Amino acid sequence: MRKILVVTGTRAEYGLLYWTMKEIQNDKELELQLVVTGNHLLKEYGYTVEQIRRDGFKIDEEIDMIVNSEKKSSIVKSMGMEIIQMAQSFDRLKPDILLVLGDRYEIFVATTCAMMMNIPIAHMNGGESTEGAVDEQIRHAITKMSHIHFPGAEYYKDRIIKMGEEPWRVHNVGQAGIENIKRLELLGKEELEKELNICFDKSIFLITYHPVTLDLENIENQIDNLLNAIKEFDAKYIFTYPNADFGSKIIIDKINNFVKGNKNAYRYYSLGQKRYLSLLKYADAMLGNSSSGIIEAPSFKLPVINIGDRQNGRLRSNNIIDAGYNKEEIIESINKVLFDKNFKANLTNVENIYGSGNVSENIVNILKSISVDKRLLNKKLTY
User: How would you class 217 by CB atoms within 10 Å of its CB: exposed for 0-12, middle for 13-18, buried for 19 or more?
Assistant: First the structure.
């Protein structure tokens, strides 16, 4: 039986891996191994490791590695703690293939360990671009370390091949976020109001803002401008927490103070995939710089105000309004979303460009059929 090891460090990444993990778990030819690390083990981020257990997954290893500090070196120290524990986990579990998703530093460490231990690496969501974050460099570094590539669109497949990866290694399987929308039975509006204990009697703003890791000096000003802009509108403000990157504490403190002083504001460590996607269905606007605004929101024809540079370079649908960091530009974008009849009419024609939602089946078929041999491990640079 072929052992497929999955490493997950954040709630968002886990949500995208969920169906593929289920497909591996249910396949008679594969064995799912699971290492949980990063944000999942932090109480201040919802301790989402418990959600993974509730979803029916056996966790083989928990790697607690986050160093809580406001110094820039804290993440580097966290990576150092993780790399030793991850190597020990790989020694114990002896996986045949490591499956990872995305561009987080926790995943970079896992991939580095696998590369040095001659474990084949399968990487989901390579070839994408987030020019405003250090994730950009991490993602492409993981691509160059990986042996099997599962990009989410044909354009991203072509980019990976242009990076010198052999075409036979690269498989466009579509975006995993679309499969969540296709397969989850979402909540109705009244069910969602009951679960969140929020009456949807005003405009609903869903807000997720992550640190822009290549512009850390301006984080406080950026989040202040966003919060001051949304205060101009009579709405319900629903915040989800940022990732545990340097600068996230500033954002979290600002959000918590905003929620304390506003009876129409709510914040969640983690909504979970079902509630989160249901909220995309009924929200009036999404604001911030989350990739879910680019990838999942178009399926709900939800208008998204994408703030700043973090998502620069990603393919996007016509539901996106790109805004700068200043308060006036954010206000102008919100007014367009709420009151511009032409923009609202064009939302009906929005199509999601990220595939049909058969990601997990496509990935599992490849993981089962690909030969784990010298040809897979010996990478060649092609142009």
Answer: exposed
Per-residue pLDDT at 313: 82
Length of the chain: 383
Any idea which residue has 């966003």 for tokens? Answer: 226
CA distance 11 to 287: 19
User: 47-74, pLDDT tens digit by residue?
Assistant: 999 999 999 999 999 999 988 777 778 8
Q: What is the DSSP track for 6-17?
A: EEE-SHHHHHHH
Which helix or strand (DSSP H or E) is residue 27 part of? none
pLDDT tens readout for residues 230-260: 999 999 999 999 987 778 889 999 999 999 9
Please name which of 1, 40, 4, 9 lies closest in space to residue 22, comparing C-alpha atoms: 4
Closest CA to 123 of 101, 145, 106: 101
Instruction: Report pLDDT digits (tens) over 308-354.
Output: 988 888 888 899 999 999 999 999 999 999 999 999 999 999 988 88
Which pair of structure tokens corresponds to residue 118?
């001659």
Handedness of CA 325, 337, 345, 300 (dihedral sign): positive
Q: 217: number of CA atoms within 13 Å, CB side? A: 0
Q: Please tell me the predicted confidence (pLDDT) of residue 354.
A: 82
**Is the torsion defined by CA of 151, 156, 157, 163 positive or negative?**
negative
Cβ–Cβ contacts within 10 Å for residue 88, how many?
A: 13
Helices 105-116, 135-145: axis angle to 10 degrees equals: 20
The percent of the chain in helix, strand and coil, each rounded to the nearest 5, is 50, 15, 35
Q: What is the dihedral of CA 93, 99, 103, 105, to 10 degrees?
A: 0
Decide: helix, strand or coil at residue 214.
coil
d(CA 220, CA 250): 7
Model confidence at 356, in pLDDT bands (50, 70, 90)? low
Q: Which residue, among 176, 124, 148, 88, has the nearest Cα to 358 in the 3D structure?
A: 176
Residue 274, Cβ neighbours under 10 Å: how many?
16
φ/ψ bin of 308: left (φ > 0), alpha (ψ from -120 to 50), beta (otherwise): left
Place of tokens 């607690």: 64
* pTM score above 0.70: yes
Strands 285-288 and 304-307: parallel
Q: First and final CA of the chain: distance in angstroms?
A: 35
